[in-house]
Write a structure and sequence with these properties.
Layout (H helix, E strand, L loop, with lengths): L2 E5 L3 H4 L8 E7 L4 E8 L4 E7 L5 E7 L13 E8 L16 E10 L24 H7 L2 H20 L3 H16 L5 H17 L4
């Protein structure tokens, strides 16, 4: 698993309020091939992103801020990104990952994230199962406004993926496996945050292939 340092990639996205859940797309060029990174703000510390090179693969990743310092507008800042390969390399036929040094070239577009409009997700709402949580992980989600909001983002992305991707059975199976992985986090909020970020990237990735 390698890391990629991107300079200034999500500066504008981080300025978005934590409950906005906006998506921005950035066009990058590492000197070898151009590719697009779609960035979705999850909260002030975690960002979900998809990197698409338009050729053989989609790289899904979760991005975290470096440290706790505040990023000033207009400054260039580095973010460590872990790339998890979601597809096999065409020639090697085995999982792979890679490192890319990518400066921000330009913002290709900025648009609301599907399901993030007013009334689609209430940042203060809780999952329906909070009435009777089945395990410690669910209790932890219900006790956290942040995690409850992320659960709402996953729910919207899941429903959209099942309805529109043409791969409903596959997505339902993956969602069931993900619930088990999420529940294994127990009361570890950092673990739960990672699981939600990973699943949001995965579900959104069904529309980038």
């Amino acid at each position: 698993m390698n890391t990629c340092a991107l300079a200034g990639l999500v500066l504008a996205a981080l300025a978005t309020p934590a409950d906005a859940q906006s998506t921005r797309s950035f066009r990058c060029d590492d000197g070898v091939r151009p590719f697009t990174i779609r960035v979705t703000v999850l909260d002030q510390r975690t960002i979900s992103a998809n990197a698409i090179d338009g050729r053989t693969r989609t790289l899904r990743l979760t991005l975290h801020r470096n440290g706790e310092r505040t990023y000033a507008g207009g400054a260039e800042n580095e973010y460590n990104i872990t790339f998890n390969a979601s597809q096999d390399h065409a020639s090697l036929n085995k999982p792979y990952s890679e490192t890319i040094e990518c400066p921000l070239v330009r913002a290709a577009q900025s648009q609301p994230r599907p399901g993030s409009g007013p009334g689609d997700i209430d940042p203060g709402s809780k999952p329906a199962w909070c009435v009777n949580p089945a395990n410690l992980a669910q209790e932890t989600v219900c006790d956290s406004a942040e995690l409850s909001r992320l659960d709402g983002v996953v729910s919207v992305a899941y429903r959209r993926a099942v309805a529109d991707s043409g791969r409903g059975a596959e997505i339902r199976r993956e969602q069931s496996r993900w619930v088990s992985r999420r529940d294994a986090c127990g009361e570890d909020r950092a673990c739960l945050r990672r699981r939600y970020g990973e699943q949001i990237s995965l579900l959104e990735g069904y529309f980038n292939n």
